[in-house]
Amino acid sequence: MDQLGRFIQSGAKGILKKIRLYLIKKLVPHLDDRRNYHQEFASSTSFHGVHNIVQTQSKTRKVLWLFVVMGCFAIVIWQICSRFIYYFTWPTTTTVVVQYVENVQFPAVTFCNLNRFQAQAVSNLKIIFFIWNIVSGVLHNFSMENKYSQELNDFLLGNQNFSIKEFTKKNGFYLNSSTLLECDFFGNPCYPQDFEHVFTEYGNCFTFNHNDLAARRVSLSGRGLHLLFDVQQERFTDEPSLGYTDAGVTFDIHSPRELPHFDGLGLLTPVGMHAQVAIRQLKSIIQEYPWGECKPDKKLRYHRIYSTNGCLQECKARYIQDWCGCLPFILPGNGTECDLLKYYNCVYPAVYDIEMKGLCTVGTHNSTCPAPCEETDYPTTVTYSSFGGENAIKYYSVKLKKTPEYIRRNLVSIDIKYRDLSYKITQQQKALTISELLADVGGQLGLFCGASMITIIELLEYIFTNFCWMCIFLLLKAPEMPQWNNPSHNQATHKEKKKQIQEC
Q: pLDDT digits over 343-375, tens only?
C-alpha cells in the first residue's frame, strides 16, 4: 500500500509539472510581450484619448489627457445611469389625433322611463319599488332602510314563488307605438322592434343599435337619431321616498359592444323638453403594465370585449354564486336564478360585503378589473329647449288627440347626432423604448468617448485576456500537492516527530 501511494503521488506530481511546463511555453507571454500588448492596445483602441496618454512624452500633457479621459468617462457613466433610472420609471407620453372620415359608426343608446312601473300594477304593492331596489342593488350602491323590513318580511312569507323578473318585465315600462311616438334614424323610420330589451336599475330599458344588429353608420354631421317619447305619467309611476322624484327619460350613450352603465351617470331629459345631444367619438388606448394600468390578456367570459363595467358584473356574479348558490338574473352568467328570499337574506348582504371588503376593485393593474387597453367613449354636449311652440302644441294635440297640458306633461323629444364626422384617438405611448434607450447610451458614448459597440468588444477582449493571464499566474504559483493523502507517510512522519521529542 505504501508503494502504491508513493506511485500515485509521483504520477500526480509528474502531470502537474507537465501542465506547468506547457503553460509556461505556450500560453504565458514574456514580460516584454505583455508590455507590448498593453502598449499596442492603448495605441490602437478606438476609445478616444487613451493613445494620447500613452504615446506623449510630456508628463504635463499626459496628466492633462488623463484628466480629460477620466472626466469624459465619468460624465458618460453619469449620463448612462440617469438614462437607465429614467427608463425604469416607465415614463409615458400621450398623443391626441383627430381623424376625419367619410362615415362613422353610430353608438348604442339605451333609454329608460324615470317612472319604472305601471301604476295599476303597484297601487297595492308599494313594496315592489323597494324589492326592485334590492334586486338592482347588484348594479349600484343602495342602502336598505329598516322601515321597510317588516313589510318586506310579510310580503316574502306570503309570496314565496313571486318572480320580480317576470313582474317587472310584464308591469314595467314598455315600448310600443303608444310610448314611442316618433323614431327616425338618418332619414329612415325606426320602430319599437328595432330596440332590444335590457334590465337596469331603472327596470325595463330599451337599447337602440345594439350589438346583434348590423352596424349603423352616418355619413353627414348634424343628422342622426330623432325620438319622441310619451312617458304617460298617469300610467307609470314610482316611489318618491326612494329618491325617484323626476318625470322624463334617462338615456346612456355607449359602444354597441358594451352594456349600458347608468349608476347616476345617465343623461336626463325632463318632460316637456327637447334635448339636442351632440356627440363625438373618443378612442382611448392605454399601455400595458408597467407603463400603463391595462392587462392585454384580461378576458371576460360573458362579454365580447373587455370593459370595467362588464368585469365588475362578472366579478360580483362569481362571488354571489359561490356564497348564495344562485345567480341574480340581472348579472351575466349561467346558474340558478335567485328567489326573493335569497335576494333579501344572502344576495344583498353579499353585495354589501363585496363593497366593504373591496373584493371587486377597479382601476390599477393589480385590481380585480384593471383599465381596458382600448375603450370607446362618447362625450356629449346637451342643450335643452321647451318642447313645442304654440303651433306645435296644437299640432300634436290634434294628432294625438290629447290636451295641450298633456303634451307638456308627458312628451319628451331627443335628437342625437354627431358634431362632425371625426373621431379623436387619445393614445398612451412609451416615452422611452428599448431601441431609444440603446440609442441614447450609444450617443453618450460616442459624444464623450468616441466609443461604439466595437469599442466595447475591444475592452471585453482586453479584460478577458488579462483575466486568463492572471488565472495562469495563480496556477503556476500554487504550492506542491499536500502529503496528507499518503497515510503511511503521515504515520512515519508522526513517528519521527515523536522520536525527536524523546531525544530532546
A: 888 888 888 888 888 899 988 888 999 999 999
CA angle 224–227–233, rounded 5-degree value: 160
* Rounded CA separation 76/90 (Å): 22
pLDDT digits (tens, 9 = 90+) for 303-334: 888 999 899 999 999 999 999 999 988 888 88
Find all residues with CB under 8 Å of 244, minimum gap 6, and list them.
114, 115, 116, 129, 238
Residue 459: burial class (beta carbons within 10 Å; 0-12, 13-18, 19+): middle
Distance, in Å, from the CA atom of 330 to the CA atom of 313, rounded to the nearest integer, reads: 9
- Collapsing DSSP to helix, strand or coil, 439 comes out as helix
Write the CB contacts of 295 (distance below 8 Å, at least 6 apart in sequence).
288, 289, 365, 370, 373
- Please give the radius of gyration of the chain, using alpha carbons only, rounded to the nearest integer: 41
Within 8 A by CB and 6+ apart from 397, the residues are 403, 404, 406, 407
Give the β-pairing of 411-430 and 267-270: unpaired
List, in sequence order, the alpha helices (H) in 159-245: 164-171
Q: How many helices (H) and strands (E) does the chain have?
A: 16, 19
User: And the C-alpha cell for 310?
Assistant: 362588464
Cα separation, 90 vs 289, in Å, equals 9
Contact (CB, 8 A) for 259 and 109: no
- State the CB neighbour count (10 A cutoff) for residue 497: 10
CB atoms under 10 Å from CB of 446, counted, come to: 14
User: What is the rounded CA–CA span in Å between residue 215 and residue 107?
Assistant: 9
